[in-house]
Amino acid sequence: xxxxxxxxxxxxxxxxxxxxxxxxxxxxxxxxxxxxxxxxxxxxxxxxxxxxxxxxxxxxxxxxxxxxxxxxxxxxxxxxxxxxxxxxxxxxxxxxxxxxxxxxxxx
Length: 107
Prior knowledge:
Helix content: under 10%
Number of strands: 7
Oligomer: single chain
């Protein structure tokens, strides 16, 4: 990811009751159109939230999976996987996220 530079993004999830999954829209400074809808959406798998997407990259179908685990009120772990559809995905990155203090918090 060092070649890509700094990535700034925002993900928005909304429940789609008709499809029984979360619809996921991801926007960032690296996406040519600005935003993309993850066609597989997101679902809970036990205590993990898993998002799935599939797209064609360089003439090959590529699967993308994002797993949010160890979710607490103040932190979570996020693993991103990518690989050729039907193959074994490789982990691209692991993010350990921690909630930062709110400017309204009193110490």
